[in-house]
Amino acid sequence: MGDQIKYLLDESRIPKHWYNIQADLPKPMPPVLHPGTMKPVGPDDLAPLFPMALIMQEVTTEREIEIPEPVRDIYRVWRPAPLFRARRLEQVLGTPARIFYKYEGVSPAGSHKPNTAVAQAFYNKVAGVTRLTTETGAGQWGSSLAFAGALFGIDVTVFQVRVSYDQKPYRRALMESYGARCIPSPSTETEYGRAVLAKRPDHPGSLGIAISEAVEIAAQREDTKYALGSVLNHVLLHQTVVGIEAMEQMQMADAYPDVIVGCTGGGSNFAGIAFPFIGAGLRGGAKPRIVAVEPAACPSLTRGKYAYDFGDTAHMTPLTKMHTLGSTFTPPGFHAGGLRYHGMAPLVSHLKELDLIEAVAYHQTECFAAGIQFARAEGILPAPEANHAVKGAIEEALRCKREGRSETILFNLCGHGHFDMQAYMDYTAGKLTDQQYDEQELAMALSGLPSVPEPA
């Protein structure tokens, strides 16, 4: 059918395995270091925070990890997710490019995040864990873990970055509807939260601070573990169902991407769409250009330093080598709360160092303009985070127009914006501004990076 718009897979085509890009890396990742000894961590070092099954997924170099049947059974609620050809957007742009997008907003929580939330809840349930703590920015991850906790009978406590807690009350309501407890961070519930508030009572919060609070609670109780929505290897692993499905759907469309675009905050949705294609290229297949799009107000890949750093602000976590703005960096409160993390996933950072991916940064108003243009053409209003991928894809399509090239562009529309309407109202009213990070604060945060001796 020449004018086909959507490409659907039957439930039987839900992937049976996650793809682990570590199996195909031309150079292994730098090790994760213990914050006390500066030596590589072992499984026992991570056991207070994660069940052993997830720890083993974090370190394995096996190419395929079997998806447990109970997880695949829940995936059936929204997977396989549809792939769309953005024909109307192509017409509006007047581009010879073919634009495809994988739409993850069909999940119950409205984003890609349940792909790992369900898996993490399953492994914790099997390990006998009854309580999970986590952090969230915009709330997509928090609502996804709340959903997964409800399915497996696990109590979930979410520390939400204060500025997003105030900006997005309906995300908070969704978490609470699923049975989770949602707390604005920094809070008075943890020793670290109280210390932050003592210095600055009106602190807007950051993902690094919220992680510290969640980790502090998890480390204090035997029945409690910590769950992370991005950054770590096992989280990125779980998201590869997105790209694995997309590869099969692109075959249905008789197409293969020349360019793949994804928004990047911690790196999970970007990895989900891109890693299977990068892996195919590393094994001798076609090598698409891979473009990571990040917010100009929190530009870890384009302005950060590739160095060992803590994943949280209180320095409770192990050290990973990643592109970082410094663990004490607090970005301005722009609306793409899911992209406001000070660091980039170590795996994504490693690929950037190997020149396997590119990175660009855009301001929020131009991303919202792209989201509005996309919605008026395609009908789906993207989340503020996903708008960055939309902007990146539109820029690639316009480049094709200038160059007269009929390239195939694939991007991940990682979530809808139905809980972000205040941000769109502010944008259409002209109240949304491009927020600049404090250059002096960035310099201070980078100057405070931990000193890690080079390996012998």
Automatic annotation (TrEMBL):
Pfam families: PALP. Its EC number is 4.2.1.20. The modification N6-(pyridoxal phosphate)lysine is found at K113. One of its GO terms (cellular component) is cytoplasm. It catalyses: (1S,2R)-1-C-(indol-3-yl)glycerol 3-phosphate + L-serine = D-glyceraldehyde 3-phosphate + L-tryptophan + H2O. Pathway: Amino-acid biosynthesis; L-tryptophan biosynthesis; L-tryptophan from chorismate: step 5/5. Residues 78-415 form the Tryptophan synthase beta chain-like PALP domain. Keywords: Amino-acid biosynthesis, Aromatic amino acid biosynthesis, Lyase, Pyridoxal phosphate, Tryptophan biosynthesis. Belongs to the TrpB family. The beta subunit is responsible for the synthesis of L-tryptophan from indole and L-serine. NCBIfam families: PRK12391.1, trpB_rel. This is Tryptophan synthase beta chain. The lineage of its organism: Bacteria, Pseudomonadati, Pseudomonadota, Betaproteobacteria, Burkholderiales. The gene is trpB.
